[in-house]
Specification:
- This protein is an alpha/beta fold.
- Helices cover 43% and strands 14% of the residues.
- The strands form six sheets. The protein has an eight-stranded mixed β-sheet. A six-stranded parallel β-sheet has the order 9-16-13-10-12-11, sandwiched between helices. A five-stranded mixed beta barrel has the order 19-20-21-23-22.
- InterPro entries: DEAD/DEAH_box_helicase_dom, Helicase_ATP-bd, Helicase_C-like, P-loop_NTPase.
- This is ATP-dependent RNA helicase.
- Keywords: ATP-binding, Helicase, Hydrolase, Nucleotide-binding.
- GO terms for molecular function: ATP binding; helicase activity; RNA binding.
Length: 1092
């Protein structure tokens, strides 16, 4: 490459390894053009990131979806303000193809270079001289051949051997002689091939100019690889010994920061990752006085608990005293705690309960650059409080990478200050893709405009191969005490790389996967674990960008990729289910990942993207709120304002118009909200005082400053409040509501926890990973057989997991809560112990949140609950189908092994085509004509992958369940020559389906829905009078003309059983109905009845 290199000092770890690493590696590299950065020239990656690419003149504008949504009715404005995404051409294959060049014997045998100069000696004669044949005193039998018996000679004075021993010796001699002959022939052929290759090489050098040019390039590239290798070892020779107890000293000026906070309303703190801001700033604020109350947020639960623990250790106190943490489902602290570390979502929920007056003197939003959707809303509310002076607090926004200019304009009218300091504590050596290829001897030609083209599978395969080559190199040439951190796009790539490393690395390693499903304790134990002969390799997703320090990490390998949801406005399926797409990260993410090293010792950062391509990356990723479903967030916003769109319109980053429309449609269909002008809304509003009575006027007034259209207002219903309290999304939350209708709340709460979590069934348990590595199909079949044994006779993955959870509870209790025994039981049934525990934790969290809202009839005995599940399996099947009916699919073709076709289904309420996810175990197989209701849908290409499903073979049962439990249906009664009949319409995602029933069935359906309304009214009374005893509450129900709640719930279950046990006498058919004449409404109303 012609790079300039500098000889480093001799001695140390690097030189010791350098003496052992003398193997020449065939290599190629990319020459740097003018103005390009190279690691050998001492450049700094952060300086390079500050450059703007020549082609990067225009960045995609942020979504203003909320404003567009509200201005839609205005005729003077355009209906859509977002431009469509241009189609992108597929990435072209540009891998260079070179003919194989025979390797010269001079390079293959460097230690014999001097001997080859002798004209009279060839390679075969030298080899014979090195390995002379042994001389045998006595010649073998004249006609002895391999396979023919040879007479054994026995000395006259030796002991007489039996015939069997002589035969064994004869066989061994024949076998040894045969192996020696085969090896000799193989060696002879190899030498002959080497001779031919050498002859071809010499002839081509004399006669072929093109070959001469390629060979000269080959030699130059080999020399460049040797220079890069030498430079790396010189740098690595300066690596100091690791002290795991080293504490990162504060490199930020705390007095200056405290002074800025005191004099301003909003302060931005922008420093390098590892500067100590996450621990030192909140700790310093806490120690200002005894009256300060500080909250500091983190985007992830892992970092929240870890940093709170670290700060408590620095103060030499236990977590939960002055310093505590508060995450959804787990709280460590009390009213005396003055410094809270929370997840950002927990802080938002806290603000909902304390309108306009947050109970904190200082609010710190850390890792602010990630800008999760809940953070957008939180900042909008805090900004509103500061502008209207409803509370006195200081807002501190901290990040390693943040575009403060745009945010300073957002906070116009407030005193804003920015603190910036980027002083690296230790040297970091930066390597781009061209430098990595030179170092490891890998040929790679980067496609032009790689960033604009996007990420395709062939390209990711090539980058993965380069990362693997680099891991092999580092594992061979570095000290085991220096750990490696690899940033991979997603969990799937983490698991694949894990398996590859186990099979291919030469030296022993300690591999630590790190993704969202890995518990924090696993990472903390790995950090403390010391293995002097086992090099630690962290395989992580972008979750490792957060503030947890990895003191033993010296090398960071960054694939510059991430998997995040991506909405394509031209594809409605992506709006309903934003697919996880592999994307290039931003320059801000690169700076975060680079900051993982250099904290306690010098480090090496390997960026698997060229310097030119890195310069073309965007400064920051698009706000996640633009590519996320916001149903649950909208539901929480309704606690503040009568229209969640109003609050989105005053956020710095806004969701897409299509996403907002989908969220509002979903909440209306579920009965969470009703338009204030809707006559059916009378009485549906909950009786408790709305917290939005203070927030709503301020939010609406602020929204009208940016929106030039009327803002509709909605009523927040009892159902909406119930679903808002549950720590799951609205669809699983509907299961809890159905449980209250039927008296099966213990089972439906478990079902909500199950459908909100990943399936615990997995074919590759750690104990059996090596056994099944080459038999994936067999492992999957065993797992699915285990699921079929637990599905209660139904074709439902949800019921299988529910029974598995209950059996796990029974087994855990029988073993005396022995974790080892429980894990062995899980391994036998192909279950994940950690996922089962997380399901149980979420179940308890749901019960805890509900306990303060409405009494829950809990069944603590797992054995009793198991029996209840077996008896009520059919009812549970119906309720899970209706909860996720918006995702229902109809199978149009079955898979055929011989024709290599897959099962295919089409959406009933969505315009999608779906196939089963073969990587997810299931107890059912799709059959043509049946209906599949999946819990999980993910987009892969132009098809949906469906998993965690329930199958219904009867269309009549499917449509009947919808008519019984859907919140709102339209209907009308018609008559013809055969008599009266009913026509109903059911609507989800703006798609209507029309169903025709006979008169008796239609009347029975309406009566059943009225029965559910009575149960709902009793539930509202139970919420209002939960302090009364049972007999007193029975009197209240009687005053309202209602039966005892338990009796009504039993009648509901009995009626449902009667419907589905007599389907042969029921008519429910899907029909076409074009006229708009269904003017009657049947809604499961929870409006309180008048007293009798």
């Amino acid at each position: 490459m012609g790079k300039k290199t500098r000889d480093g000092p001799k001695g140390g770890v690097g030189n010791a390894i350098k003496e052992m690493s003398t193997t020449t590696v065939t290599t190629t590299t990319t020459t740097s053009g003018e103005g390009k950065w190279t690691s050998s020239e001492g450049g700094n990656l952060l300086t390079w990131l500050s450059q703007v690419a020549p082609q990067q003149q225009k960045q995609n504008q942020q979504s203003r979806g909320a404003i567009d949504y509200l201005n839609k009715a205005n005729a003077r404005k355009n209906a859509k303000a977002s431009k469509s995404s241009a189609g992108r051409p597929p990435a072209a294959e540009t891998t260079s193809t070179k003919p194989e060049v025979p390797k010269p014997r001079s390079l293959q045998q460097p230690q014999q270079q001097k001997d080859q100069d002798n004209a009279g000696t060839n390679a075969v004669e030298k080899l014979a001289a090195l390995f002379p044949e042994k001389q045998v005193k006595e010649a073998p039998a004249p006609n002895a051949k391999v396979g023919n018996p040879i007479a054994a000679r026995v000395g006259a004075e030796g002991p007489k051997r039996n015939e069997k021993e002589r035969r064994n010796e004869t066989v061994r001699a024949q076998r040894h002689r045969g192996e020696r002959e085969v090896k000799k022939e193989r060696l002879q052929r190899r030498l002959e091939m080497m001779k031919e290759a050498q002859k071809f090489h010499e002839e081509a050098l004399r006669t072929d100019p093109e070959y001469q040019k390629r060979f000269q390039t080959f030699q130059e590239l080999q020399a460049a690889q040797q220079v890069a290798h030498s430079t790396f070892l010189d740098r690595y020779a300066k690596q100091g010994s690791l002290n795991i107890n080293t504490i990162v000293s504060e490199r930020i000026d705390i007095p200056v920061i405290l002074n800025l906070i005191d004099q301003h309303d909003v302060v931005f703190i922008c420093t390098d990752t590892g500067s100590g801001k996450s621990t030192s700033v909140p700790k310093a604020l806490l120690e200002l006085s005894n009256d300060t109350r500080v909250v500091s947020t983190q985007p992830r639960r892992t970092a929240t608990v870890s940093i709170a623990t670290r700060v408590a250790e620095l103060r030499r106190e236990a977590v939960g005293e002055d310093v505590g943490y508060w995450i959804r489902g787990d709280k460590c602290g009390d009213v005396q705690t003055r410094l809270w570390y929370m997840t950002s979502y927990t802080l938002l929920l806290h603000l909902l309960n304390t309108p306009l007056r947050p109970p904190f003197t200082h609010i710190v939003l850390d890792e602010f650059h990630e800008r999760q959707p809940d953070i957008e809303v939180t900042v909008a509310l805090l900004r509103l409080c500061l502008l209207r002076r409803t509370a006195q607090f200081k807002l501190i926004l901290m990040s390693a990478t943040l575009d403060t200019e745009g945010w300073e304009a957002y906070f116009a009218g407030l005193k804003v200050a920015t603190y910036k300091q980027s002083e690296p504590k230790h040297l970091i050596h930066d390597y781009f893709m061209e430098d990595v290829c030179t170092l490891v001897g890998t040929m790679y030609d980067e496609p032009p405009n790689i960033v604009q083209r996007g990420v395709e599978y062939p390209l990711m395969e090539k980058h993965t191969a380069i990362a693997q080559a680099l891991l092999l190199y580092l594992n061979t040439c570095t000290d085991p005490q220096h750990a490696i951190l690899v940033f991979l796009p997603g969990r799937g790539q983490v698991e694949q790389m894990h398996m590859w490393l186990e099979l291919n690395l030469r030296k022993p390693v300690d591999i630590i996967p790190w993704h969202s499903a890995v518990d924090l304790s696993v990472i903390q134990e790995a950090i403390k674990r010391r293995g002097h002969n086992r090099q630690k390799i962290y395989l992580a997703t972008d979750i490792a960008e957060v503030s947890i320090t990895l003191p033993d990490v010296v090398f960071v390998i960054d694939m510059v990729l991430v998997k995040r949801p991506k909405v394509n406005k031209e594809n409605p399926a992506t709006v309903l289910h934003p697919p996880l797409m592999t994307q290039w990260v931003s320059k801000g993410n690169i700076a975060q990942r680079r900051g993982r090293i250099g904290r306690v010792q010098q480090g090496f950062y390997f960026c698997l993207l060229s310097a030119e391509a890195v310069a073309a990356l965007p400064e920051h990723m698009h706000p996640p709120i633009e590519n996320s479903r916001i149903d649950e967030l909208s539901l929480h916003c309704l606690q503040l304002v009568s229209n969640p769109v109003a609050i989105f319109s005053i956020c710095h980053g806004q969701p897409l118009l299509e996403t907002i429309a989908t969220a509002m449609d979903t909440l209306c269909n579920l009965g969470c909200i009703l338009h204030r002008k809707d006559p059916l809304a009378v009485g549906e509003c909950i009786s408790e005082i709305h917290t939005n009575s203070e927030w709503s006027p301020l939010v609406l007034e602020e929204a009208k400053n940016v929106v030039f259209a009327d803002i509709d207002e909605y009523e927040y219903t009892f159902v909406g409040r119930l679903l808002q309290l549950i720590p799951v999304s609205p669809l699983p939350g509907m299961l809890v509501l159905y449980g209250f209708f039927t008296g099966l709340e213990s089972l439906t709460i478990l079902a909500a926890a199950v459908t909100s979590s990943l399936s615990p069934f997995a074919p590759n348990q750690p104990e059996k990973k090596r056994r099944w590595r080459h038999d994936v199909a067999g492992a999957m079949e065993e797992t699915e057989n285990s699921m079929r044994e637990m599905c209660c006779g139904m074709r439902s993955d949800i019921l299988a997991v529910m029974k598995a959870v209950l059996l796990f509870r029974v087994q855990f209790a029988k073993s005396g809560e022995d974790v080892t025994a429980a894990k062995m039981w899980c391994a036998q049934h192909h279950l994940s112990y950690d996922k089962l525990r997380s399901i149980l934790d979420l179940e308890q969290h749901i019960k805890y949140e509900l306990a303060n809202f409405i009494p829950v009839r809990d069944v603590p005995d797992a054995t009793v609950l198991l029996n209840q599940l077996e008896k009520a399996a059919a009812v549970m099947l119906v309720m899970t189908n209706v909860a996720f009916v918006s995702q229902a699919l109809e199978v149009v073709s079955e898979g055929n092994t011989y024709q290599k076709t897959k099962e295919t289904a089409v959406g009933i309420f969505m315009d999608v085509v779906a196939v089963p996810d073969i990587h997810s175990p299931s107890c059912l197989r799709w059959q043509e004509g049946e209906i599949i209701v999946p819990v999980q849908l993910s987009l892969m290409g132009n098809k949906m992958l469906a998993s965690f499903s329930t199958a219904i073979s009867s269309h009549k049962q499917f449509w009947l369940s919808l008519l019984l439990l859907t919140h709102k249906v339209m209907y009308a009664v018609f008559a013809d020559d055969e008599g009266e009949f009913y026509v109903f319409s059911v609507k989800y995602y703006s798609t209507e389906r029309y169903l025709e029933t006979d008169a008796a069935t239609g009347s029975a359906i309406l009566q059943f829905r009225q029965m559910l309304s009575s149960v709902g009214q009793a539930l509202r009374l139970l919420r209002d009078y939960q302090h009364l005893y049972d007999d007193e509450f029975a009197d209240v129900l009687n005053d309202h003309g209602l039966k005892p709640l338990r009796d009504m719930q039993c009648e509901v279950v009995t009626a449902m059983a009667a419907f589905f046990n007599n389907t042969e006498n029921i008519t429910v058919d899907e029909v076409e109905h074009e006229e708009d004449d269904l003017d009657e409404v049947s809604m499961i109303s929870l409006a309180l009845p008048k007293r009798g």
